[in-house]
Amino acid sequence: MEEEDQQKILDLVKELVNRVLSRNPQNPKPSISSNPNSPDFQNSLRYAIRILSSRLTPSIAPDAAAIAESIKRGLATQGKSSQALNFAELYNKFASKTGPGSINNKWAVLYLLKIISEDTKVAQNAPNSTLLFPNLGLNELDLSNESRGSRNFKRGEKGYDNGVLLVSKDPENLREIAFREFVNLVKEENEVSEEVLVRDVLYACQGIDGKYVKFDANVDGYALSDLIKVPRATRVLVRKLCELGWLFRKVKGYISESMDRFPAEDVGTVGQAFCAALQDELSDYYKLLAVLETQAMNPIPLVSETASSGNYLSLRRLSVWFAEPIVKMRLMAVLVDKCRVLRGGAMAGAIHLHAQHGNPLVHEFMRSLLQRVCSPLFEMVRSWVLEGELEDIFSEFFVVGQPVKAESLWREGYRLHAGMLPSFISQPLAQRILRTGKSINFLRVCCDDRGWADAATEAAAAAGTTTRRGSLGYGETDALETLVVEAAKRIDKHLLDVMYTRYKFKEHCLAIKRYLLLGQGDFVQYLMDIVGQELSEPANTISSFQLAGLLESAIRSSNAQYDDPDILDRLRVKMMPHGTGDRGWDVFSLEYDARIPLDTVFTESVMARYLRIFNFLWKLRRVEHALIGAWKTMKPNCITSHSFTKLQHVVKLQLLSTLRRCQVLWNQMNHFVTNLQYYIMFEVLEVSWSNFSNEMEVARDLDDLLAAHDKYLRSIVEKSLLGERSLSLYKSLFALFDLILRFRSHADRLYEGIYDLQARTRASSLSSQDKKQSRRQTRDKSSEVGSWLIDGRKALEQRAGEFLQNTGQELEAISKEYTVLLEGFLSQLPVQQHVDLKFLFFRLHFTEFYSRLHPGT
Amino acid sequence: MFNIVKFVADMDSEAAKTARESLDLAFHMSNLLDTGLDRHTLSVLIALCDMGLNPEALAAVVKELRREPVSSSLQNSSAPIAKP
């Protein structure tokens, strides 16, 4: 078998030599040399056999694919890309030929082709150098042949094994020698070969200490040990590459730290998402490292003849490969640093700040990271907006709930946590999100309503398909906004519907206006009439039950009886805490029980403001009522006519002047009170109410409604002089009221005296005329009357004179005080900020009477 | 005369076909690479490769033989062919 093979090979070689020689373009006499018996042929054959029998082993591993790849690349770099493609195709076909009859040693064939092709190229290039000496012509070939031969011979003597074929027959050998020397130099300089360093760097980048590259705590990073002799450039390069390892350690450390902490402490869902996203990035990174490692193992067959074909990966190649991962890893490390103390929305916000980057690589990376990080947050928003659920066990959401009573649920139940609000959600949007969820909760807790679920589903449908669980993500802020807007619109509308129709918000507001703000005139008049007596008693003797009964009868006898019983049911009497000496007037007030859910609008503080307004209006009404009462006693004007004709002239004159003073003063007061009353009722209450109703119409959510109501109330308070700024005005107004009430009692006394006097004079005149008749009459009267009679006319007139004088003086004093107070009040009015108070001034001072009276002021 | 075609003549036609196609493909590649080998030479080379000869050495033979007719620089030793 062996023999046979040998023979076969020999035959084949003979054939080969024959073929090659016969086609040799340089052979001047091809026909002769192809003769198998010619000496040339024999020589060539011997030569060929010697070459073949040399122990030249292939310098590469038998890998057909790698060689094919190398050839292809070679073609491609020569600019023959179409040929490269052709070649790749051919190779694929060639490689697929298996089985009997196919070529076994495919790699050898390919390698052979490759080398021959390269040789031909070199041979084609080589004569170019000889063209430098064109005059030498063909002889030059012989010359060079000879010189080459002799050089080869010399080399052989120099100790090169003569069995080894040297590829150093052309001038390029010089380059190769230099190159080899350089390699040796490099080897001397480096104790460690580059392959080892590359491997170590790859290890370091996974956070593992290599053989030479180790983590150095002093410099806080991976570095080559100082003991190893490597050039400075390599050292720096290794240090640079190992930055990746340092960053990796940091990120990895954070992840494992967070994960270790997880069951014990609350890392938060956002934190967990962040860790997961980082973990994914790291596994991508691991993949890259694995690929690099296999490449580092695989030397690529680049050039066969140079000694330093080396490994595919050098440190420099690594630095190229690491360019992208290092950017990402750096980003991650920065984020890890930032987020170490942050959580929830704050964390997302912090990461978002880094996402604003011009580099598309960074931008894309951050986007995908944020998408993961924000998904729990967006999920929370979704369930909050559509279901009103606050699934936030780690308190990461920017809406914070706290347990409160139902009435303050709207105002205090939920609030925005500014720290947890990520910056990609704008403040108005956050407010809207807060309100929508709050509305749902309000409907659920306070209104006991289930209709919102339909509204939410509708909203989800309207916002499109993007509302499925977990489908909202970072970067889809628009989608989020649409969802929130849709949900807010529907839920708010539903809430207002419930408030208006089911809980009759408007009706209740109107009822409060009518009863607490005394808008229902007949009711107030009647109430004033019947409770007046009761309220004049000291406060501690009044029973509120009795007053409640009076209120009931006032309702029943006024138009209020036709009102909704539910509304009337809520109207109560309230006695305020009273001190000693307080009259019933001071403590009486009405109260309206708003109940859930309206107590969200009519909170205690709001009701307290209503109470203040009520007290003021009640006092105003009382003063008006008092003045009307005074008028009733003054009304019978017959006093002056004939009954006093018999009086002394002086007394009569006194009487007349006192009466007149009283009338004038009453008129002044009445003018003031009537106008004030008019102003309050029409300029203040009605105008504010009208504004409020308009705003109620356009209100889109409960907050609008609350704001409108608040504005309504505030405008009433301001305009009715109850505000902070008009405190002194308010005081002088109350002084005026008190004065008017005092006037009423004086006027009452005056008229009482006058009626008395009238009665006496009539009696005395009668007694002189018709004693019998009067005796019977006077017998029924009190003993005092008797004394009058006894004292006689003179004494009577004297007493009347004294009485009138006293009363006149008192009235005079009141009048003076009133004038002073009113002037003070009027002078303060124009100074007020509120423009409506100028109308009041105008109205009170229409004819400029007061300024003409006292031109000085 | 030894060539691949003859070599496979006694094999079944399937194998012959494969062999021919392989040779065709190799020849195409050889042309693409500008080796200057003709079909026959290539078939001889492939046969030698399949016999397990070192392709580098074969390449060297082709190169050397092409460059020059054997000169006197060669010494007259004829070692037996060793299979590498």
UniProtKB/TrEMBL annotation, chain A:
It is found in: Cytoplasm, Cytoskeleton. InterPro entries: GCP, GCP_C, GCP_C_sf, GCP_N. Residues 507-850 form the Gamma tubulin complex component C-terminal domain. It holds the Pfam family GCP_N_terminal. GO terms for cellular component: gamma-tubulin complex; microtubule; spindle pole. Belongs to the TUBGCP family. Keywords: Cytoplasm, Cytoskeleton, Microtubule. GO terms for biological process: cytoplasmic microtubule organization; meiotic cell cycle; microtubule nucleation; mitotic cell cycle; spindle assembly. It comes from Dovyalis caffra. It comes from the Eukaryota. GO terms for molecular function: gamma-tubulin binding; microtubule minus-end binding. Residues 198-501 form the Gamma tubulin complex component protein N-terminal domain. This is Gamma-tubulin complex component.
Automatic annotation (TrEMBL), chain B:
Belongs to the MOZART1 family. It is found in: Cytoplasm, Cytoskeleton, Microtubule organizing center. It holds the Pfam family MOZART1. One of its GO terms (biological process) is gamma-tubulin complex localization. The keyword Cytoplasm applies. The keyword Cytoplasm applies. PANTHER family: MITOTIC-SPINDLE ORGANIZING PROTEIN 1. GO terms for cellular component: gamma-tubulin ring complex; interphase microtubule organizing center; spindle. It comes from Dovyalis caffra. Keywords: Cytoplasm, Cytoskeleton. This is Mitotic-spindle organizing protein 1. The lineage of its organism: Eukaryota, Viridiplantae, Streptophyta, Embryophyta, Tracheophyta.
